[in-house]
Amino acid sequence: MRVFVTGASGHIASAVIPELLDNGHQVVGLARSDAAAEQVSALGAEVRRGDLGDLDGLKAAASETDGIIHLAFDHGMMRSGQMEAAAQGELDAVKAFAEVLAGTDKPLVTTSGVLMLAMGGLSGREGTEQDTIPGGPRADSENLTISLAEQGVRSSVVRLAPMVHSDLDKHGFTSALIAFARENGFAAYIGEGANRWPAADTYDIGVLYRLALEKAPAGTRLHGVADTGLPFKTVAETIAGKLGIESRSVTQDEAPKYLNFLSGFAGLDAPVSNAATRAVLGWEPTRPGWVQDVQAGHYFA
After folding, report:
1. What percentage of the chain exceeds 70 in pLDDT?
2. 273 CB-near residues (< 8 Å, 6+ apart)
3. What phi and psi, each to the nearest 5 degrees, are found at residue 131?
4. Of 300, 11, 292, the residue nearest 179 (C-alpha)
5. How many Cα atoms occupy the beta-carbon half-sphere of 122 within 13 Å?
């Protein structure tokens, strides 16, 4: 397949693009700057200049390829508190793809996050691929993607773990938590730290996106998680151990001071299952878990 990948210079794409190329696909990667174009080219993909705001350009790219993996999201806006604006940009892009792909049976794989389930009120049990959120930031894009199955698009959504980790991760949530701990002099967790966060290795996630592109049934939600729920206190203690500092409980009111833009998420209890994803795609994570990967030391080089 000739595959159009948005967010092609980002963390997830750094595993997705090589995985696609190694399995016989051609890749066209969206890049909005010279630096991004160099990164995309270095991965072996063809470069298409543009950004998420260029909806006509997205439609043109969609019409010229056999499938789409949509990874792009304006994380800078999210980190600055403009989550709704970032989510609207993502939704507009999916709508643009929908206009071109309707009735083609081409694959469209978009991206969401498992934390969305906890933000939507799910609690007391593991979230599953069948759980849904009626609407809101990112949920709107996810629900639109799934609805395209009724319009002749082989659509699927990968809900990513909040901690996608590996030596490819330079700016993700794991890197952010380590940076906060360095700044604070301790690794913070909220309350007892018993709330759970999922995690997955970037290279395993690359395989998941490739399998979703190749064979996910239309209208499928998938969970990109391997560790299905690490206690947040364990996360803090692991980081503290590598930095040689202490871990410390903070209150929810104190969290913005010590956990910055993650303070609204760090107390969420979001364990999730990946059973349906593994059954549907035959996906089996093989890489190290989050604790083992962080203890390996590359995050601290």
Report:
1. 95
2. 126, 127, 128, 129, 223, 228
3. -70, 140
4. 300
5. 19
The residues, any chain, with a CB within 8 Å of residue 17's CB and separated by 6 or more, are 5, 8, 27, 29, 40, 43, 44, 45
| Model confidence, pTM | 0.95
Task: Read off the tokens for 137.
Answer: 């930031």
Q: Quote the mean pLDDT of the chain.
A: 94
**Cβ pair 7, 73 in contact under 8 A:** yes
Q: CB-based burial of residue 136 (10 Å sphere; 0-12 exposed, 13-18 middle, 19+ buried)?
A: middle
Q: What is the pLDDT of residue 89?
A: 75
β-strand partners of 199: 163, 227
Distance CA(65)–CA(49), nearest Å, equals: 15
Among 10, 295, 44, smallest CA distance to 169 is for 10
Report whether 79 contacts 261 (CB < 8 A). Answer: yes
Work out the burial of residue 164: count CB atoms within 10 Å of its CB; fewer than 13 is exposed, 13-18 middle, 19 or more buried.
buried
d(Cα 149, Cα 95) in Å, to the nearest integer?
A: 14
**Predicted pLDDT at 211:** 98
What are 113's two structure tokens? 């996050």
- Asked whether 243 and 184 are in contact (CB, 8 A), the reply is no
